[in-house]
Amino acid sequence: MIEVELKFQIAQDGQKALMRVLDALPMREPPGKRILADTYYDTCDFACLRRAIFVRTRNRSHLQIKYHEQLDPEHRHCIERVFPWFADLSQVRAFNELCARLLPSWREGATIEEALSANGLRKFVRISNQRIQYAHEQMKLCVDHVEGLGDFLEVETMCQEEHQVEQAQKDLHDFVARLALPALQPVQVGYVELWLRMHRPRVYELGRYRLVEDEREQGNKRREDELSGYSNTARDTESYT
After folding, report:
1. DSSP 8-state secondary structure symbol assigned to residue 163
2. Total of domains in the chain
3. Which of 61, 69, 136, 149 is the most buried (most CB within 10 A)?
4. Is 233 inside any structural domain?
5. CATH number of the domain enclosing 6
6. Are 237 and 230 in contact (CB under 8 A)?
7. What is the pTM of this model?
8. 191-209: per-residue pLDDT in tens?
């Protein structure tokens, strides 16, 4: 399955308005509250982060791998595979096969924990999240309070095929537009990137996905360096002549 998702940061004064709007929507089931403890794994040289592969355990019960089969510059869809932490032989085999396809030189392990250890994947970020989850039409709506990062709205749906992604993205955008809540600010990265940006900025820079303002700042710096290099070259040329 392909997960299609939009993420928004909720302004400090916008939480109550958002909750009123969501509580008024027809739901397939009552809202549920969850405490999520996500632990992310990577190698010492951040091989997963560099490839936009996210390996994490959730509440010490199962392991999730999120990755892309197609280019996704806006970080809005991915494929998610889920494996029980205490997986049986067939599940471990499927896990090893997937990782061997995603990461070069993958070494098989007899259990998921052994495979992670054998390939140098260690815990490196822990994200704690208090979530209220709604089920509206074919969408999952999550209001998240993420420790140390703030409050967010995630709007998510699932697709069977790649050709359905564009329409799914449009449907999600249309839904958020109908909420008419200016307190929602788009976020183009996941919680792990936001945490890295705050606590380990050099590692954050290694990732494929960054906030728009960071991409813009990097682009401006690149142009300044190019202009500086051009000016230095011009001065050198004048001196030479």
Report:
1. G
2. 1
3. 149
4. no
5. 2.40.320.10
6. no
7. 0.85
8. 999 999 999 999 999 999 9
